[in-house]
Amino acid sequence: MNRALEPEVSLPDNITFLQPEKIRLANGIPAYSICAGEQEVVKLEVVFNAGVWYGDYALVASAVNSLLQAGTKSKSAFELSQAFDQYGAYLQTEVSLDIAVVRLFTLTKFVPETFPLLLEIIQESVFPKKEIDLFQEHGIQQLKINNQRVEYTARGLFSKALFPGNHHYGRIIEESDYLCLNPSIITDWHNCYYMPDNCFLVLSGLFTQKEVEVLNNVFGRWKLKKEVKRKDTASLDEPYQVVEKNVEKQDAVQTAIRIGCRAPNKLDEDYVPLMVLSTILGGYFGSRLMRNLREEKGYTYGVGCSLVSHVRGGYLVISTQVGKPYLADSLTQINLEINNLKEQLVKDEELSLVKNYLSGVFLRSLDGTMAVSDRLKSVVVYGQTMDFYKEYLQKVKNINSYELQRLALKYFSSKMTCITVG
Asked: Residue 48: pLDDT above 90?
């Protein structure tokens, strides 16, 4: 063996990963189980269609999700914390634009004790006013701090430009959004969206049929208290128009840059090829933008290009922060790299490197039961199957330079939205 020679790199033709089993609980809730691993630990996620998109109040989804652990009809926040602690269990809550998640990590042997506690938090939260007041106070304080940060301001203005008007993806949080919250609004929203007909469950880790039966016995008995009518938000989308905006901040040392446009989400055929293109432009440490702005010019510590997918739309964004004196040339260099992708074919060596990089990141994301559960959650939200990931790998492997140039001309030809703050 000649250790001076680099081993040949080849992309996998196919992949195998843990396949989830779909079950339906006694009350009709869809649930997915992925059983594997060596440690007797399980993760149970309750996923609701209850993200920021839903509802007329910009912060109500975040408030409900954050305050679930603030107390129930029979337990205070302290008592809930003690109850989980005695079993070595850990609770997380998370909210995004499309979904809200309540996540429990627990030892397998304590599933019979902790699953009922999780349902109690979801079903019987009371949202005390003093906890709402604290949420408002801390949120307003953090908002004032964030508004001084150029990247936070740029991110908000960029989202508003891409999703204008009343589109809920483009809402910019203001102090009034905190002040309008009250127990009635929060409780009504919780009773509308945190319901058994508006969720699915994902159980992952090392468990037996006994734990699946506990899951059904606990969550399968969860019933709707009354018929719920949820507001239709399908009419909120408005036409996207290119925006160029510069916001001066006299005391800012750096300028935040956000450049991008509306782009397809993962349901579109262009999504995976466009992800390859965005990675070449700025999606990894050796990307074109990173070499240009960081390594050659020294304008920034980091620059990135991302393809972001949401259920009701997606976008492509280039983001960085540069010193004020370098703003004009940074914009010039970014446009130069974009034009190069439109005018010149990507060389085979660079394309092969990016394919290897994306394939490696993808395979690592499927390493382990709980990692697979994260991937599963995503496809369920989009109404897809796990076959998406097999097709993803093949699409990455088969993409060529001509297809990338076609995509560059399609998505980069029209003028892109550009927001600078600093």
From this structure: yes
